[in-house]
Amino acid sequence: MAFWLTFDAAAIEAEEGAPGLDRVISGSPTFRTWNFEEADDGLYAGIWEATPGKWRISYDEWEYFHILSGHSIVTEDGGEAIQLKAGDSMVLRPGFNGTWEVIETTRKDYVIRV
Description:
By secondary structure, the protein is an all-beta fold. The protein has one domain (14-113): Jelly Rolls (Sandwich), CATH 2.60.120. It has strands spanning 15-17, 24-27, 31-38, 43-50, 53-58, 62-76, 81-85, 89-92, 97-113.
């Protein structure tokens, strides 16, 4: 077992997905996810990409992410809209509820702790 991890999207096949239809507010967003780490202790890491659209999000887990490309807007219920572009990082904590809107196809790397 290696004690390091690289994020090479060409090394594995992406999982395809989309938000549940009951969460979609606008558009027809789709996701591609390259999971590089899925540890038994609830740690996940990889790359996620989404196409334009807007949907509701609700976090039960802790997530750190770094935007690699694109433009998205994350808005907490009752809060201000946060513009996210390449180079931006954010942490979403358990209990976060709001919306994620992809303006331009967005790719991020992430680490999630369940």
